[in-house]
Amino acid sequence: MKTYLITGGAGFIGANYIHYLMKNKQNIQIINLDNLEYSGNPENLKEVEELSHYRFLKGDICDRELVCQLFHEAEIDYVVHFAAMTHVDRSIESARPFIHSNIEGTLTLLEAALEAWETDGQFPGSKKFLYVSTDEVYGDLRAEGYFTEDTPIAPRNPYSASKASAEMLVRAFGETHGLPYHITRCSNNYGPYQFPEKLIPLLIHNCLRHAELPIYGDGQNIRDWLYVEDHCSAIEAVLKRGKPGAVYNIGGHNEKTTLEIAEIIVDYIHDHHDPAVTRDLIRYVADRKGHDRRYAIDPRKTREELFWKPSVTFETGIIKTIQWYLENTEWLSHVVSGEYLEYYERHYGSKTKPDAIYNVPYKVDTLRRRVPCL
Ligand code: DAU
Hints:
Mean pLDDT: 93
Bound molecules: 2'deoxy-thymidine-5'-diphospho-alpha-D-glucose
Oligomer: single chain
Structural class: alpha/beta
CATH class of the domain at 2-190 and 228-250: Alpha Beta
CATH superfamily of the domain at 2-190 and 228-250: NAD(P)-binding Rossmann-like Domain
């Protein structure tokens, strides 16, 4: 019997990971530690909350007393550390909460794991600390090439800087104290339960309410999209077969521009759900500051060492995702309440006013005249 401590298990990827474990693993216990801040949502886990091998603990990873007590009371084998502030735009607006949660929170967990697991400089073979990081730590990739695990770390926004810093702490605890760890760096995830501040759920949500679809800059920024369940299976592969102290890239070679994503979503909703949703909803708005142009993962090491590969193509995954949101409008309406509306107005209110850079309805010809690189 293995006991997993999952931090941030009520968030998007954490909740999907818990569902994945419940479906695919037997003889495990799960403790979910989550502070239920704005994007952590107990509704994401209502199917599992009554299960005897699942325990939810509302608490903050920065709360040393609570975290140490938890490690002493429960025989934790695996820490899978998702809990983090994750939205780049929010980190640009205010960096400090990212430093607190993502760096200090990670340090608290590392100290507690060290204290509970180490005896005379030795760690039992069953213990593992897996830090869920991001491809954003590599910074910006221009048109050519891919991020490999050897690409130098060069984060370019406060969020990715905080993730890179936390990685360094994990590594330092491994090198200094021998704490058994893995680090995973995954590309952009999408799928059920994603909070609609991120591109894909935001676009779907806005289509459903016939609101404008804000596209930053020229819409040509590229992200490498991975269906969230494939991220979950990769984490399992790392826990099972990963080398101690190794970093693994996770990605599926699904590069798409922001504009392509918007068009795919609009067209699907137009054809299958609501003909009133058209590409006319797309609006070019002022760009994100320091916006990384392209991310693209080379997942070869993970494939070859761990025998992992994604099982969901982008074409299938995006339809599953749109359908999930269409079927879960109640979930959506619950999460887009007070705090979300305030954030939305703060962040997009001024962007979509007439002085925004590309505040023109989407028309390729108009756009070509304004954006020379198209
Ligand atoms: O690469 C992994 C990372 O992916 C994760 O570590 C982050 O936690 C996650 O938020 C995500 O970061 P991005 O900044 O790439 O995701 P986001 O959904 O915010 O934006 C995706 C792209 O879409 C990016 O080029 C910015 C653009 N965008 C985003 C929003 C919210 C728009 O054009 N309009 C928008 O309104």
